[in-house]
Amino acid sequence: MSTRTDAPTRREQILKEAARLFAERGFHGVGVDEIGAAVGISGPGLYRHFPGKDAMLAELLVGISGRLLTGAKRRLAEADGQAGRAGAEAVLDSLIEGHIDFALDDRPLITLHDRELDRLRESDRKLVRQLQRQYVELWVEVVRKVHPELSEPAARSAVHSVFGLLNSTPHLGRAGTLPGRGDTARLLHRMARGAFAAAADSSADRLAAG
Amino acid sequence: MSTRTDAPTRREQILKEAARLFAERGFHGVGVDEIGAAVGISGPGLYRHFPGKDAMLAELLVGISGRLLTGAKRRLAEADGQAGRAGAEAVLDSLIEGHIDFALDDRPLITLHDRELDRLRESDRKLVRQLQRQYVELWVEVVRKVHPELSEPAARSAVHSVFGLLNSTPHLGRAGTLPGRGDTARLLHRMARGAFAAAADSSADRLAAG
DNA sequence: CCTTCAGGTTAACGACCGCTAACCTCGCTG
DNA sequence: CAGCGAGGTTAGCGGTCGTTAACCTGAAGG
């Protein structure tokens, strides 16, 4: 598994800093001069690496969606063969774990992912949405194998909601006031599984409408 | 229970449309001319009602946080008296229900709430954060009454995560492809309770680290 | 009937921002 | 060592945006 040890290219530096700045202050809130300054060059120097500011955002968002989907497909293939509900549970755990890793390691990207999609050109936006949809549908299939009682629309809503839960990491303590990474990951994992289980257990609706 | 039947004032119209536009395209992505056009007046006419664009955002965010906190306090007081875990469960259900109502009825505000906070003047931002913190702490207390096994940091993380879950409604089907409002509310409610329960049940960590 | 004022209007200013143009300066290579 | 391309630089253009200035209008009040 390609574990990079060599220095990042300037292009990669730019993408990383741009992601951080976009996440912090929004796409329109960041000027190209600031992005340049963040990597030690100034303003228009960026145009040696990208055709424009939009292109940076597009590459970030397409990259995120693509990596999420690719990772999920790989995890699905790895745990293949083991059929039945037990196998499906293993796959679901693997999907959750992968998403949590991503959410914890690339917070700015997670933030961008559902915040700046509308700033893209039509074609890029369509591509990103298509990748996102495939990712969701992949989850939906696995969730319905683990919880066959769930209808497809309910499963899809549940998946979106669990994404909301897992993607909440940027809100968990700006500083290191929260528990260690391992504890946080385990907590999120448990909650995700519990949320899916509760979604499937509609007999839990013993609460009177308020 | 002030159920308004009279027509909204121009000021309220402006706030509502501004919220929608800010949520759709980001604070910096919307011009004052657009906000004006959305309420039938044009550009600078807004300055008869607000000292500036920033002030609209500030009033929106302070209003949201304040309403959330006020509602939660009211619900806490209403269900007071009934002590013990059963009473706490009722309060938690009431809090969840209130938050879901808000998330479903005021999607744009929910979106703004955790997206544009950094665009505020220092003083307003501090006020909003203080209101948010009180709201979170109120939840944390109730959650820990229902699930005493949860440490305070874990409970706080869990609460933030459940907010992420409940606030995911803007991502659930832009159009009406999703189930009805009542079904969605019940699903979210169940998932929130399930997530809290799973957070508290740390014996569920039988999964080997990947 | 005159005044006042809330709530609009259009014109325009100044700042900022994305991007281009023109130029510079290395390090490599034939 | 000449040439050249990669990767910078600064100056500046054109457009947009928030805000202000100056003016208009219609309804209410004495």
UniProtKB/TrEMBL annotation, chains A, B:
Instruction: Give the matching InterPro entries.
Output: Homeodomain-like_sf (IPR009057), HTH-type_TetR-like_transc_reg (IPR050109), HTH_TetR (IPR001647), KstR2_TetR_C (IPR041490), Tet_transcr_reg_TetR-rel_C_sf (IPR036271)
DNA-binding positions are 31-50
Alphabetized, the UniProt keywords read: DNA-binding
Signal peptide coordinates: none
Identify the Pfam families for this entry. TetR_C_24, TetR_N
Domain HTH tetR-type residue range list: 8-68
Q: What is this protein's record name?
A: TetR/AcrR family transcriptional regulator
